[in-house]
Amino acid sequence: MGCKVVNLEAGMPSVQTAHVLLNQALISARANRIKAIKFIHGYGSSGRGGAIKQDVHRTLLEKKRAGIIKEFVKGEDFDPFHSTARKVLELCPELNRDSDYNRGNDGITIVVF
User: Fold this and answer.
1) Could you report the per-residue pLDDT of 65-88, keeping only the tens digit for each?
2) Could you tell me whether strands 3-7 and 108-112 are parallel, antiparallel, or unpaired per DSSP bridges?
3) Residue of 87, 19, 29 lying closest to 58 (CA atoms)
4) Strand 108-112, strand 36-40: pairing
5) CA-based Rg of the chain, rounded to a whole angstrom?
6) Which residues are CB-neighbours of 91 under 8 A, at least 6 positions away?
7) Beta 3-7 vs 36-40: how paired, if at all?
8) Which of 10, 14, 75, 76 has the most CB atoms around its CB within 10 Å?
9) pLDDT per residue over 17-70, tens digit each?
10) Where does residue 109 rank: exposed (0-12), middle (13-18), buried (19+ CB within 10 A)?
11) Per-residue pLDDT tens over the stretch 84-113
């Protein structure tokens, strides 16, 4: 149980490599009954959202629609003012103690199973 942190940007991988790491982390977390994952993907050097971040969000939306994950929230929305963040906190209340809660961190995404 608990929240696992997975750094997808470590070593500056390609989008394809980060995508494989994302999928492996999701499979592993479900198998090990991890309640939540914080993915660190960075926000891109342009400051507008890098390719890894975009791929993470696109993939997680697919996983949510398929019922593989319950919810995810972008770091920039991980605060009490966004309904998605409130839903994530309902599913995993201990996330309100996460160091990125209410900080507007564009470089992370939280996933809840």
Assistant:
1) 999 999 999 999 999 999 999 999
2) unpaired
3) 19
4) antiparallel
5) 13
6) 35, 36, 70, 71, 112
7) parallel
8) 75
9) 999 999 999 999 999 999 999 999 998 665 555 899 999 999 999 999 999 999
10) buried
11) 999 999 999 999 999 999 999 999 999 999
